[in-house]
Amino acid sequence: MLRTIEEKKPLIHHLTNTVTINDCANMTLALGGSPVMADDLLEVEEMVALADAVVLNTGTLNPAMREAQLLAGKTANRLGKPIILDPVGAGATTLRTDFMKELMQQIQFTVIKGNASEIKTLLGQATTTKGVDVAEGESLDFHAVRAFAAESNQVIVVTGPVDFVTDGQHELHLDVGTKRLGQVTGTGCMTASLIATLLGAGYARFEAAALGTFLMGKAGEQADEKKGIGDFRTGLFNAVSLMTEETLREVHFNEA
Amino acid sequence: MLRTIEEKKPLIHHLTNTVTINDCANMTLALGGSPVMADDLLEVEEMVALADAVVLNTGTLNPAMREAQLLAGKTANRLGKPIILDPVGAGATTLRTDFMKELMQQIQFTVIKGNASEIKTLLGQATTTKGVDVAEGESLDFHAVRAFAAESNQVIVVTGPVDFVTDGQHELHLDVGTKRLGQVTGTGCMTASLIATLLGAGYARFEAAALGTFLMGKAGEQADEKKGIGDFRTGLFNAVSLMTEETLREVHFNEA
Amino acid sequence: MLRTIEEKKPLIHHLTNTVTINDCANMTLALGGSPVMADDLLEVEEMVALADAVVLNTGTLNPAMREAQLLAGKTANRLGKPIILDPVGAGATTLRTDFMKELMQQIQFTVIKGNASEIKTLLGQATTTKGVDVAEGESLDFHAVRAFAAESNQVIVVTGPVDFVTDGQHELHLDVGTKRLGQVTGTGCMTASLIATLLGAGYARFEAAALGTFLMGKAGEQADEKKGIGDFRTGLFNAVSLMTEETLREVHFNEA
């Protein structure tokens, strides 16, 4: 738990999937934030107003959730709240690809974080993804991502063996993590929660995006000594809860 | 697992949130009960009729869930089944506060368990809560809680650093637990499951409320030796599954 | 993680309950598969088309989920995709029993896996089940199960102290596992995910049904050294993630 975050205890409002919702709540707490999940249309706007940051995650959709996410996003924009999009499964089905377009047209995100297949879909590029995992050997056009970040004024995080973070002007390649992070469901979703918690605590958008991504990779490295995947997963929560400000200083931000 | 509970294996019907629903099921099992979660309007009444106790938890709402909870509550009352309310997030949004009022007007609860912010909201008092965590420094008017319990004929549990349990005539202050219970999502929800399991096994309402609350605090103390929050969380389930009748005897019930 | 499965990384589409959905995803990953959960009616057909196997689990129902499961099942049949039914709670309420009938009438399953109470309900036999756990002392008419498997051309798995697997011609009794598997929610659901992952990786239906059931029992035995139920649960994921092809060879398939 980071002391600076624990003191502020930012409220992180999630509109997210039913698969990893518990993990996202616990990861937010592990870093020192306070998670809340509320997607009843009758309370979405009020909850966004209370929140310090908002997460939209498209992992499991239904008509009410789609409507609630659009409402939450527009409310966050109106009130100037940081908002992050985790476009889970973008490219896998027409519904997901179309809904992402709708989200992107109607909402200005602070940060968008996805794997290469998902980000390529947002850029309108072809992808061979099936499901919610990144397609094997998916390649990325860094130039296009950078241009998209600059034009749309959003920080883009592309997670992968080496994570890529750009706001169009600054960028970082983070060579951190372990392949095993892909063997536990929701490590991507939890990364979005970490970024949102940092945003909610007042970190600037590029720093929050980079540090949240770095923290999950670092947690993976620290948990990697565990042999079984059950222990590895528990280790991720241990690691984040024991992180200190010291760890954040391992990320070096350079001017563009 | 308590032998007396395991032998009866009470069926605990939950209408609860999607964040901690798995934890509530596993905690019910850890104490020796049998959890069931069913909120399809077409089966709520039948499932309540099968159940030994019912839990309503307002952590994540939607129109169908709200309707199902009202139906489950009224059915439990009609059939004389014990029913517990966990008013998660009461006070945070108008929807939640209004829905709590509706629940309280239409349903007679056996036990209501919440944090200070939530219980104050039920009493019609102002609170500074945001989200589902208790507001910092929230103070409690014990007299008002006691009067509310007596008038409404419901046992009220206010969880906190020292838990307070009252039926208006008897009361207990339980100085048990650890601050870290607030660093894992759902420990409050799980406390409601423990109370419901005790109710379903035949414990009287005041005893069930006090013992269920005590068990979670005790589990927290036993798990507290773990450094990371992932291990601490796993330790809570270990602890409850290894509880014996001996532990329950640590709670001393005095006459009013 | 089984290398043969990891190489193929079959996509396993789940339409399942909100209680154990995270466990099913993680168990699919632990064996080497790629889980996806999608029940929005607008994407069900497309996701089934992408999937290598489909799981229908009736643990928590609602009108949209019921419609989505019927659609997914019919689509799987039309496209010749393996599909497994986990009829959670069959027999407990009229809704569940009726919905199972509807599923069985409209969909041809590759494998149906349930406890004795659930399978008896599918056979039209009386059961004393309440909730989602098997009724105490539930007895099983092996002859009827065998006949049902043969007539319906579906592999039937009846889980219990000794698991029974039959396709009407071949059969296996698997004396594997531990009583403690019943003390963690979702071990049955996760067994269905293991079977589906094997089906998706290309195993023949009888082998997949037997091996998936065996793997969960074996994982239970390996985790059984753990005292507390939290550690036992984590141990299940460890065990499956560390399984090798060697373990599968412990199951001896005899000709009928």
TrEMBL record, chains A, B, C:
Binding site for ATP: 113, 159
Extent of the signal sequence: none
Domain of life: Bacteria
Alphabetical UniProt keywords: ATP-binding, Kinase, Magnesium, Metal-binding, Nucleotide-binding, Thiamine biosynthesis, Transferase
Binding site for substrate: 37, 186
Pathway(s) served: Cofactor biosynthesis; thiamine diphosphate biosynthesis; 4-methyl-5-(2-phosphoethyl)-thiazole from 5-(2-hydroxyethyl)-4-methylthiazole: step 1/1
SUPFAM superfamilies referenced in this protein's UniProt entry, alphabetically: Ribokinase-like
InterPro entries in the cross-refs: Hyethyz_kinase (IPR000417), Ribokinase-like (IPR029056)
UniProt cofactor(s): Mg(2+)
Entry annotated with the keyword Membrane: no
One Pfam assignment: HK
Molecular functions (GO terms): kinase activity
EC id: 2.7.1.50
Annotated catalysed reactions: 5-(2-hydroxyethyl)-4-methylthiazole + ATP = 4-methyl-5-(2-phosphooxyethyl)-thiazole + ADP + H(+)
Task performed by this protein: Catalyzes the phosphorylation of the hydroxyl group of 4-methyl-5-beta-hydroxyethylthiazole (THZ).
Similarity comment: Belongs to the Thz kinase family.
Name of the featured protein: Hydroxyethylthiazole kinase
Gene that this polypeptide is encoded by: thiM
